[in-house]
Amino acid sequence: MAKPILSLKISILITIVSLSFLSANAQDKPKAPTKHWYEQISIRGYAQVRYNRLLETNDSLKNEQGDKSWGNGGFFVRRMRIIFSGNVHERVYFYVQPDFASSPSSGSNNFAQLRDAYFDLALDKKKEYRFRVGQSKVPFGFENLQSSQNRLPLDRNDALNSAVSNERDLGVFFYWAPEKTRKLFSSLVSDGLKGSGDYGVFGIGAYNGQTANKNDANKKPHVIARLSYPMEFKGQIFEAGVQAYKGKYVIESKSDKVKFAKDLNYDDERAAASFVLFPKPFGIQAEYNVGRGPEFNPLTDSIETQKLKGGYITASYFMKVKSQILIPFLRYHTYDGGKKHELDARSYTVKEIEIGTEWQPIKNFELVAMYTISERRFEDYKLQNNKQKGSLLRIQAQLNF
Prior knowledge:
Blueprint: H1 2-28, E1 42-54, E2 76-89, E3 92-102, E4 111-122, E5 129-137, H2 142-145, H3 158-161, E6 168-176, H4 179-190, E7 202-207, E8 222-233, E9 236-250, E10 265-277, E11 282-297, E12 302-317, E13 319-321, E14 324-338, E15 347-362, E16 365-379, E17 387-400
Antiparallel strand pairs: 1-2, 1-17, 2-3, 3-4, 4-5, 5-6, 6-7, 7-8, 8-9, 9-10, 10-11, 11-12, 12-14, 13-14, 14-15, 15-16, 16-17
């Protein structure tokens, strides 16, 4: 019996020594250095330079909410943006984007203005549930959420973009999306398929309602909800969505003699549907919205709450020639309604066709040529019976860094 007991004792002793050795090694092994939050900040940006006067047939044809250089001047810096973003904590992400080429009015260019300034607070480790607090894009419309760095047409469509000038406002939004879907949202942008970015499968929130860089004017925040889901099927990727918002908008720009509501508060509500077939290689993007909002009525010389409607459809084809990318596209859009951000909630009727091509010879440079055929009626108290038709060839060079 002595030998088995002795063997057992020796085995136990060897095990204890081995564990002690492993424990000592583990303690002696240097730990991976922890990165400070400021070492995880990403800095990137893009710049866009345009020329809109080629083959121009009517310099009275303008687009104030889109590109103020229509019918004015020559070369024009449309955007010059630098983006700072990163994680200051495993559950806290921040995003700040100033634009150094803002144009507060025609002829006044290249002012610095804050576009985005928000942080995301994740409620779980996978970051499927998160709150976004600060100034950010209002989740209304797929094209509104697309970065101008990724969008094919040079300007957003009038119909949905008239809902939120510059697409942004100050508020709080809640977003939810499964981890797998969040990765898909990200790949649709990184793979050059013109995605909108990650604004969740479901989003809901409240915001001031007067647009970015402006204070709340009536202590009545707008509320909004959006549902949008991307799906993969036989190598193709689709995304369908619906969204709606409701609030009271306070008119801020009006003529001296125009008639208006005593408190300047007007119903502001819309609902929209979106459908996207991402270009693999053929793509379709379509949206339509209806609603009610302030609009100038030339028959009564007053700003009234009126119905609005409009949308667009864009067709594109993604071609890769060796290392270069070529994407021809065609967009038709229409709008009938007011633009609350403009003087007297200017009344619009828009019909426009755009034919263009985006060429990417290298990742850091893009060139877009787009021919626009436009018919626009835009009227306020001072500018009545104003219907303009025309066409122009527009060129944009874009640097990505």
